Every structure is written in structure tokens, then in C-alpha cells.
Amino acid sequence: MARIDLVDLAHSYGNGDDPESYALKPVTMTWRQGGAYALLGPSGCGKTTLLNLISGIVTPSRGKILFDGVDISRASTRERNIAQVFQFPVIYDTMTVGENLAFPLKNRGVPKSEIDKRVAEIARLLDLTPDLNRKATRLTADAKQKISLGRGLVRSDVAAVLFDEPLTVIDPELKWQLRSKLKALHRELDLTMIYVTHDQTEALTFADTVVVMHDGRVVQSGTPAELFDKPAHTFVGYFIGSPGMNILSAEVKGREARIDGHTLTLARSYDALPAGAKIEIGVRPEFVDVAAPAPGLLAANIERVDDLGRIRFARVRVGDVKFAARLPAGFSPSGSAIGLKFDPAYVHVYADSRLVEGA
Ligand code: ATP
User: Are 349 and 281 in contact (CB under 8 A)?
Assistant: First the structure.
């Protein structure tokens, strides 16, 4: 397994020289050896492009990729020693499950005793042992995709294992199991893994570090808790969480934020915000407390309650501003009027969508 460095890496499919039009805008970052990474973002944000640059399917228009310090930007996929799992099963129907799992090892000339050991281990980890001698053609699509996962994980000497939306074809119930299984497999197998998905639950369950992409750009790389507690970009706040972060236009001066005539006190002071920038504050619904109206609370009205079973989110309105707030368990407002309290530690300030650190 390798440490992976992306150095000023960018790619254009031929849309001109302006980096703003690139499918992948210049990125420099390091992925540690043995880490579990997710590339997360909506359709078209550049996840597959970045994955294909790492695997060698696409050659970068600019910058470099290093594996353990060695420039492999122009090396073939085979030379890069990468294993890949795609959205749809890539297996041989005429072979047995065991033969399919053994194939990547045979292909690299691994001795038979080692192949047998490794295949047995992977089959055990993926609950495929009872199927080892069955022909793959008789299996369901779910089971076939499990074999694809096994084929991706069977070699212990790869630089990295890349997964491109591998659970798309999996039935929802099994998806839950496989998600946590992949996490456990990462711990057990000690491989560098990179997992592409547009599904935040998959990304947050699997990865130690989630790399969030938006419009061809890496906007934040961090642990699930960092992305949740301190989004570096308004897009991360909005995209992660359900519902996402409230992003409200505000005037911010020192420790005060004014929203539609109402004043909030901030935890830090913001004295040097860039002139002319669009200033917004972001606060997650989980950090807006809803209570009965009372002096000192921000007066608001509930417009709607989304009941998600154990969790309820209120859609509230303060003047002309609408946002979401979490309702405490057992709280039932007597009318639409409520009071709101923001936890200042979780109110963030953004200038042109980027987080500003207060002083
Ligand atoms: P999805 O989840 O839909 O696959 P993605 O986040 O993986 O999306 P990419 O497939 O990397 O995004 O696409 C990024 C941008 O590059 C998109 O605008 C896409 O249309 C464009 N693109 C991708 N592949 C090519 C290609 N072979 N030729 C030209 N443009 C491409």
C-alpha cells in the first residue's frame, strides 16, 4: 500500500485552458498509507475523473501523482499496481467463486499455497465460503458484486484499492451490512482504500477522511466530525447532514451578526472580513434550540414540522428568513410562535462561501 500525493493535479477533457473550466481544478493533497478515503460529491463534480487519474485510466493535463514519492502520472494501470471495484460486477461467469477470487493473484504469479490462503481469508470475511465451489453464473447480482469486492481486496500488495460507487446495484438491506463490512475489512486488511460515492451515508460510514468535491474542486477534506461541525465551505454544510446546514445572508461586525433585523452574538470576533464579499452565516439545524417564546430568544414562527420518527425538524421563519431547527423530544408548541436560541460555538461565518476563522 502506498502514500498518495496529488501535486497541482488538474484535468481538462479539452474545454480550453481556463482552469475554471477544468473537470478537475488544481488540487494538491496527500493521502496517507493505509487510510480509508471517500470522494464525495454530487453527479458531475469530478469524482470519477480524480479516481481515473489515480488509476491511470486518464492521464492528467497538469500536475503529478506520486505513489510513495515516485511520480507515476504517466505509468500504466498495471504498473501502478492498483485494484479496482466498479459499479457493476466484473467477474467471469464460467468460473467458480473461488476461481474468480483467485484470478487477480494468479495473474500476478502468486504461489498456489499463498493464493489458497488469501482466497479462504477473503471468502471468510465476505461470507462467501459456502459458495466457493459454485459457478458464478448461478448467483444473484448482489452475490456477484460481493465477488467483485473480494477480487478487489484479495491482493495484499496493491498500492491502493479504488471503489467506484460499488454498492449501487446492491439491495438496500445488504447495502447496510456491506457498508459496515467494508469498514471492518479496511481495519483488518490494512490497505489504502479510496471510495467514490455521491451518498453521504456511505462516505461517512466507510471513511476516516472524506474528501468533498463540488464543481471540479476539492472543497474540504476531513473526518466526518470535522465536516459536520466545521464545514469549510457552504456547499459542505448544505451537502452533509439531513437536512443540511442553514445558510443565511447576514451582516457581520465584530461579535455580532444581524439577520433580517435580528442580532445574534457570535463566539468569535470578525473584524477583517473581505470588502465586497458575500457574507453568510451557517448553523446546523441540530444547533438551533427551539423553545416556547421567551425574552432573550429570537422570535420565530413554525411553518411545518418534518417528523422523521424519533427526530423532528421544524421549518421556521424569522421575518423573511426561513430555516430548519431540530425540535427537542417531547416539545409540542402551543401555537406557531416559538423562541430560538443558537449555540454560538456552532455558528460559522462565510465570505464568498469560504469559512472565515474568527479571532
Ligand atoms: P458521476 O457521479 O455522475 O459519475 P462525477 O462526480 O464522477 O459524476 P465526472 O464523471 O468526473 O463526475 O465528470 C466531471 C465533469 O467532466 C462532468 O462535467 C462530465 O460531463 C465531464 N466528463 C467526464 N468524462 C468526460 C469525458 N470522457 N469527456 C468529456 N467530458 C467528460
Answer: yes
The CATH superfamily holding the domain 246-356 is Nucleic acid-binding proteins (2.40.50.140)
Q: What residues does each domain of the chain span? A: 4-232, 246-356
Strand bridging mode 251-259 / 262-270: antiparallel
pTM: 0.91
- Pairing verdict, β 36-40 and 209-214: parallel
Q: Whose CA is nearest to atom 10 of ligand 1?
A: 48
Which residue, judged by its Cα, is nearest atom 29 of ligand 1? 13
> For 221-252, what is each residue's pLDDT tens digit?
999 999 999 999 999 999 999 889 999 999 99
Average pLDDT, the chain: 92
Taking 90 as the threshold, does the pLDDT of residue 281 lie above it? yes
Burial class from Cβ neighbours inside 10 Å (0-12, 13-18, 19+) for residue 290 reads: buried
Q: Are 260 and 227 in contact (CB under 8 A)?
A: no
The atom number, within ligand 1, closest to the CA of 13 reads: 29
Residue 349: per-residue pLDDT: 97
Residue with CA at minimum distance from ligand 1 atom 31: 13
21 lines ligand 1 (CB under 6 A): no
Report how far ligand 1's centroid is from the alpha carbon of 345 (Å). 38
Distance 8 CA to ligand 1 centre (A): 19
| CATH architecture of structural domain 4-232 | 3-Layer(aba) Sandwich (3.40)
Q: What is the pLDDT of residues 129-176, one digit of tens each?
A: 999 999 998 888 889 999 999 999 999 889 999 999 999 888 888 888
